[in-house]
Design goal:
The chain has 453 residues and is an alpha/beta fold. It is built from 14 helices and 20 strands. The strands form five sheets. Strands 12-13-14-11-10-16-17 form a seven-stranded mixed sheet, with helices on both faces. It holds the Pfam family Aldedh.
């Protein structure tokens, strides 16, 4: 497997894939590691999380540089990602034990029922390249605290980041088998899921990958959490602070060079303010600077690969052929998978193209007549991950929360994940939750204990 710098097109490293014997050795180590780690106390688990937080903070420059080199995100966003991982480890080290406290329920027939949170076993994580540390931390931190152990199948183009995560866990003093990187492609994943030593699987990735993993997990009767694609609505109503909405719409769309599942991708704007929003938004997107991800002046870096840029270009060609107009969104000449930020207008509202997730710095802009129309357009796709609504009208806010078909809604702010809050979607954006208490409990056995006294 090759790590290719998308800013230059140069191969920066190669990584040897595990063979069958190597996979077997890691599965055996995971099983043995779980047999020990499941018996560890919360003090030992939280201490490991605290050391991991310290390690990520101490090595933030090294970790960020690897992410920038392997998948092209700007250095400032890579540093922010590493800091967010450290915050998650620290949050669970401090707040996690309360989430695992047993409960006692008196029974009408007499006696009481207790509930205990117990670990399940080794958890396989199939993770994407777009946030090479944060996506892993979202599975790794609760895995450690729960008393489970983790196996990571990371994207093939960020194996350098995967190896660094494994090193960080070892340097934090984790016992053998608590976390292992599996440098493999997708071929062996089905057999690993089916292996009796693996208790559950979590995946963040494409809809197709989610379907494959869900099918394999279902056949093996394993618990699964899926965080899949999204084409999040970003709705702006007349009462919104327009300056703030325009600025945050740009931020939402270009974060991580547009390669985020919860980027605002469809800007749905009330007709009373549409033209004003449109003029400001198009101008602001045109001012976004695409350039060297190591340059602090760059707003966006290259896309993750030349292949990814070709995918986005093909989507734009299809949309223009269907009658859409595009401002910006041009592939830049020279080395690197760079393209400018752009805005698509006149995309058919009820066609299949509106439902396509564009994983690049391209926004779709829609005009709507009222709140009912805004909700209709927001829900007219098979995805339901996040959403963002901009209105100072409290009644409108409550209507959007109730009626937008999504796992999350942000009000007057950009949609984002946080260590404290559950994260996940509905419809074809997946099922299950990460983060918060729900994410910690996702791969645990909520055992009921009946007592007569």
């Amino acid at each position: 497997m090759k790590s290719v710098n998308p800013a230059t097109g140069e191969i920066i490293a190669t990584h040897e894939e595990l063979d069958a014997a190597g996979i077997e050795a890691r599965l055996s180590r995971a099983a043995a590691g779980f047999a020990r780690w499941r018996l560890s106390g919360l003090d030992e688990r939280t201490a490991l999380l605290a050391r991991l937080a310290d390690g990520f903070a101490a090595h933030r420059d090294e970790l960020a540089a690897m992410a920038t080199a392997e998948m092209g995100k700007t250095l400032k966003s890579a540093l922010a990602e590493v800091d967010k991982c450290a915050a998650l480890f620290r949050h669970l080290a401090q707040a996690g034990p309360d989430m695992l406290a047993p409960s006692s329920i008196p029974l009408a027939a007499g006696g009481r029922a207790e509930t205990r949170w117990l670990p399940l076993g080794p958890v396989l994580a199939v993770m994407p390249w777009n946030f090479p540390y944060w996506q892993v931390a979202r599975f790794l931190a609760p895995t450690i605290l729960a008393g489970n152990v983790g196996l990571l199948k990371h994207a093939s183009n960020v194996q350098g980041a995967a190896a660094l995560i494994e090193r960080m866990v070892k340097e934090a003093g984790a016992p053998a088998g608590v976390f292992q990187n599996l440098p493999i492609r997708s071929g062996p994943v089905g057999a690993i899921i089916a292996d009796d030593r693996v208790a559950a699987v979590t995946l963040t990735g494409s809809e197709a990958a989610g379907q494959a993993v869900a099918e394999q997990a279902g056949r093996a009767l394993k618990k699964v959490v899926l965080e899949l694609g999204g084409s999040d609505p970003f709705i702006v109503m007349p009462s919104a602070d327009l300056d703030d909405a325009v600025s945050k719409a740009v931020t939402a769309r270009i974060q991580n060079t547009g390669q985020s599942c919860i980027c605002g991708k469809r800007m749905i704007v009330h007709e009373a303010i549409h033209d004003d929003f449109r003029d400001r938004f198009v101008a602001a997107m045109a001012a976004v600077k695409a350039g060297d991800p190591l340059d602090p002046a760059s707003d966006i870096g290259p896309l993750s690969s030349e292949e990814q840029r070709r995918t986005v270009q093909a989507q734009l060609w299809k949309m223009k052929a269907a009658g859409a107009t595009l401002t910006g969104g041009e592939a830049l000449a020279g080395p690197g998978a760079y393209m400018t930020a752009g805005v698509l207008e006149d995309v058919p509202v009820d066609g299949d193209l509106m439902a396509e997730e564009i994983f690049g710095p391209i926004a779709m802009l829609f005009r709507v007549t009222d709140i009912d129309d805004a909700i209709r357009v927001a829900n007219a796709i098979p995805f339901g991950l996040g959403s963002s609504v901009w209105t100072r009208d409290v009644a409108e806010q409550e209507r959007f929360v109730r009626d937008i078909a999504a796992g999350m809604t942000a009000i007057n702010q950009v949609m984002a994940s946080a260590p404290e809050a559950p994260f996940g979607g509905i419809k074809r954006s997946g099922h299950g939750r990460e983060l918060g208490a729900a994410g910690l409990h996702a791969f645990m056995n909520q055992k009921t204990v009946l007592r007569a006294d």
